[in-house]
Amino acid sequence: MDSIRKEVLDFYRSLGTKIIDKSHDQDTTDLHKCITYIWDFAPDANKSSLCILVAGALGGRYDHEMGNLNVLYCFSSLRIVLLSDDSLIYLLPRTHHHEIHIQTSVEGPHCGLIPIGAPSRSSTTTGLRWNLNNTEMRFGGLISSSNIVVGEKVTVQSDTDLLWTMSIKKL
């Protein structure tokens, strides 16, 4: 709320929107504050199945994009999907064996696996044109960018958290 234009704030107030001003907290991003709010007010019974889709999370200022990626790591136990006009990104925690079911009518074929939080000593995939087989990935070395999904299911196992990114088809 520290950078909202007055006319935008007035517009939402006129609609009866509840305004929560957390601008005094400059140590977290707006997205972090939103996710915290959602988490705090979601019923306990639904928290384990919570999935949050964040539209417009990519394609703006690079520092904001990186802040949004950081939120994925801050809330790694939640399923948060960052969405832009042409791609989506979400975190694959190292604690799981992942099965990603591709909706080929709207997703793909381009994808990537990015070890942004820490190097991966061992990542293995199936369902990609260039599968990884206990492959090491790190910045300054190999990352799996510009890969291609070849089916409707991709599996991923890694010793570190990875960002999964996939292209979205224009409809």
UniProtKB/TrEMBL annotation:
EC code: 2.7.6.2
Protein location: Cytoplasm, Cytosol
A GO BP annotation: thiamine diphosphate biosynthetic process
UniProt keyword annotations, A-Z: ATP-binding, Kinase, Nucleotide-binding, Transferase
Cellular component annotations (GO), alphabetically ordered: cytosol
A GO MF label: thiamine diphosphokinase activity
Phosphoprotein in keyword set: no
Enzyme class: transferase
Pfam families linked: TPK_B1_binding, TPK_catalytic
Alphabetical list of SMART domains matching this protein: TPK_B1_binding
Cross-referenced NCBIfam families: thi_PPkinase
Role of this protein: Catalyzes the phosphorylation of thiamine to thiamine pyrophosphate (TPP). TPP is an active cofactor for enzymes involved in glycolysis and energy production. Plant leaves require high levels of TPP for photosynthesis and carbohydrate metabolism.
PANTHER family, sorted: THIAMIN PYROPHOSPHOKINASE (PTHR13622), THIAMIN PYROPHOSPHOKINASE 1 (PTHR13622:SF8)
UniProt protein name: thiamine diphosphokinase
Species for this entry: Gossypium gossypioides
